[in-house]
């Protein structure tokens, strides 16, 4: 669901989720060719086996960390008490659940690909006493019960319930796993790319992205709009900065062909200590902190927001502006920015008003290589610093 704002000189569409504005501008990343598989799959490399598990077995795997539920995934809060209770009631009534999908790593770790909210709900009820049953349709005698309050026969029925799981073999290529995830995602609210990426990544990258997203300078620069964002736009914004910072030369972007591929590769790099070691992680964190401070010092309450001439309206966060300006300013001395701040701000606002190539580069098909190059080069030209 979206809400359009048409009374501003530079139109935007703000994302709405759960009936509330998210503070972030909707971004059309793709190009005309998106939606097609760039490299044809080799069916021989796609291996998915089907297994039956008891819920007791699956819950034990979660408790022993053999099954990763991506514990800081934000979207679990979406389910209402009635939805959670009706799921448990279905199991108690011995109604089969739709199949789950797990992805297996080479080290044997399993990650939930489809069914995260269902398993989180069941685990929360059976193991953690997170909620009591409410608004039941048939088992009204169990209204208000926690798991421990259920009769022993019903407790056994829950623990012994069988679920069907399709397990994606670790030999399946990562790009194919990611596309499978997008195709079989069956939740009521489809996951976005960052949410999928988060569920399929490892603890190292997740912890680092979370640390950056909780950075004080990031909170200040974004006016708190991305704090613990319900659609994970906070983590995605951090990741985009890290991706282009690690990329270095913007011309190298062409070899990835799309922003999603660059972000996927960056997550893989962050998860691999041989590609990005701990010293590099600390430097990236310091760079991110410094970039946020510089951007806010320059643009104030309009940091990472469209701010055309003739308007002082505070528009939603624009992620293309965030990545391009943060990466551009990291190499610019604060003394240069202080000396030229008024001119830089005015030239930027002018570009947002009448430079249509620049406006397009931060508004639509933002993953297109030409538009990526345009927004980075425009920011660099406006800043006017030659190292």
Describe the structure.
The protein has helices at 55-63, 81-92, 116-126, 152-160, 174-184, 193-200, 203-213, 216-221, 233-247, 259-271, 278-299, 319-329, 334-354, 356-361, 369-383, and strands at residues 2-5, 12-17, 20-25, 48-54, 67-68, 100-104, 110-114, 162-168. It has 387 residues and is of the alpha/beta class. It has 2 domains: 2-30 and 203-383, no CATH class; 43-190, no CATH class. It has a 5-stranded mixed beta sheet, with helices on both faces. The two termini are 45 Å apart. Residues 60-198 form the GmrSD restriction endonucleases N-terminal domain. InterPro entries: GmrSD_N (IPR004919). It comes from Nocardioides pini.
Defining traits:
disordered N terminus; 387 residues; alpha/beta; elongated; five-stranded mixed sheet; 15 helices; 2 domains; single chain; three-stranded antiparallel sheet
Strand and helix order? EEEEHEHEEHHEHHHHHHHHHHH
Distance between the termini: 45 Å
Radius of gyration, taken over Cα atoms and rounded to an integer in Å: 23 Å
Helicity, in percent?
A: 40-55%
* Number of separate domains: 2
Strand and helix map with partners:
Blueprint: E1 2-5, E2 12-17, E3 20-25, E4 48-54, H1 55-63, E5 67-68, H2 81-92, E6 100-104, E7 110-114, H3 116-126, H4 152-160, E8 162-168, H5 174-184, H6 193-200, H7 203-213, H8 216-221, H9 233-247, H10 259-271, H11 278-299, H12 319-329, H13 334-354, H14 356-361, H15 369-383
Parallel strand pairs: 5-7, 6-8
Antiparallel strand pairs: 1-2, 2-3, 4-8, 6-7
């Amino acid at each position: 669901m979206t809400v359009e704002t048409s009374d501003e000189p530079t139109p935007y569409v703000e994302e709405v989720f759960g009936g509330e504005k998210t503070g972030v501008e909707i971004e059309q990343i793709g190009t005309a060719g998106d939606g097609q598989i760039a490299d044809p799959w080799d069916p021989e490399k796609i291996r998915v086996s089907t297994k039956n598990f008891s819920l007791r077995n699956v819950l034990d795997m979660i408790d022993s960390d053999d099954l990763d539920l991506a514990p800081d995934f934000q979207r679990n809060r979406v389910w209402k008490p009635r939805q959670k209770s009706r799921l448990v009631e279905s199991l108690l009534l011995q109604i089969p659940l739709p199949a789950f999908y797990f992805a297996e790593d080479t080290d044997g770790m399993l990650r939930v690909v489809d069914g995260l909210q269902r398993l989180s709900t069941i685990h929360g009820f059976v193991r953690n006493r997170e909620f009591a049953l409410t608004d039941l349709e048939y088992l009204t005698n169990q209204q208000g019960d926690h798991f421990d309050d259920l009769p022993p026969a019903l407790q056994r029925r829950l623990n012994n319930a069988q679920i069907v799981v399709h397990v994606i073999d670790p030999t399946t290529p990562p790009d194919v796993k990611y596309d499978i995830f997008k195709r079989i995602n069956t939740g009521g609210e489809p996951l976005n790319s960052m949410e999928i990426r988060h569920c399929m990544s490892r603890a190292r990258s997740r912890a680092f992205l979370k640390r950056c997203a909780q950075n004080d300078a990031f909170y200040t620069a974004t006016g708190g709009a991305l704090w613990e964002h319900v659609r994970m736009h906070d983590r995605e914004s951090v990741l985009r900065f890290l991706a282009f910072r690690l990329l270095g030369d913007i011309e190298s972007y062409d070899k990835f062909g799309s922003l999603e591929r660059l972000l996927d590769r960056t997550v893989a790099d962050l998860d691999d200590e041989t590609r990005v070691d701990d010293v590099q992680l600390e430097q990236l964190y310091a760079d991110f902190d410094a970039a946020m401070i510089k951007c806010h010092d320059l643009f104030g309450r309009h940091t990472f927001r469209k701010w055309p001439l003739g308007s002082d309206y505070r528009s939603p966060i624009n992620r293309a502006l965030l990545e391009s300006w943060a990466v551009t300013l990291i190499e610019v001395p604060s003394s240069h920015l202080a000396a030229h701040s008024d001119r830089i701000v005015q030239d930027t606002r002018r570009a947002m008003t009448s430079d249509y190539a620049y406006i397009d580069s931060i508004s639509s098909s933002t993953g297109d290589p030409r538009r990526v190059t345009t927004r980075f080069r425009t920011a660099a030209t406006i800043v006017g610093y030659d190292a």
